[in-house]
Design a protein that fits this description.
This is Transcriptional regulator. The protein folds into two domains: 90 residues, Multidrug-efflux Transporter Regulator, Chain: A, Domain 2; 35 residues, no CATH class. Helices cover 48% and strands 12% of the residues. It contains four helices and five strands; from the N terminus they run ααββααβββ. The model has no long low-confidence stretch (mean pLDDT 84).
């Protein structure tokens, strides 16, 4: 059995239309326009995911606020681009953190008993009675 998530195409068009509070023909039109493109079964039937349903509801909300279908398309494109960019930033942050932790000479600082910041060599623990760690790269 496969794992289900918000992107799993499970709803037939009639159920998706009911969940989105739209007519099935509206979903077909949005599919033709490329606004919400559902998955397809081997036989070609549309299957909508929970993410598709949420997107249909967002289209309805934007339409009720007077946004044209072309405006809706642009909003959805920007939201998808934003989501992809956030994912890429997260990947890059993880890679950077790994680089900082694993690079030779990574710097860790501690506070001495007098309050001065003192560097510690990688793998060296601060003296418990006189120093506390101020910063070290996340693990």
């Amino acid at each position: 059995m496969t794992d289900m998530d918000e992107n799993s195409p499970v709803f037939a068009i009639a159920m998706a239309a009911e969940l989105a509070e739209m007519h099935p023909q509206t979903l077909r039109q949005y599919d033709r326009l490329g606004l919400v493109v559902p998955g397809r079964t081997r036989g070609g039937s549309r299957r909508y995911s929970m993410r598709d349903i949420a997107q249909l509801r967002e289209i309805a909300r934007l339409g009720s606020e007077g946004v044209s279908l072309e405006g809706v398309r642009r909003v959805l494109e920007l939201e998808n681009e934003n989501r992809a960019l956030r994912s890429r930033v997260s990947e890059l942050e993880t890679a950077l953190a790994d680089q900082l932790i694993n690079r030779p000479g990574a710097r860790v600082f501690a506070a001495s008993a007098t309050g001065a910041a003192v560097p510690l060599r990688a793998g060296v623990r601060p003296q418990r009675n006189t120093q506390i760690v101020l910063w070290r790269p996340p693990h």
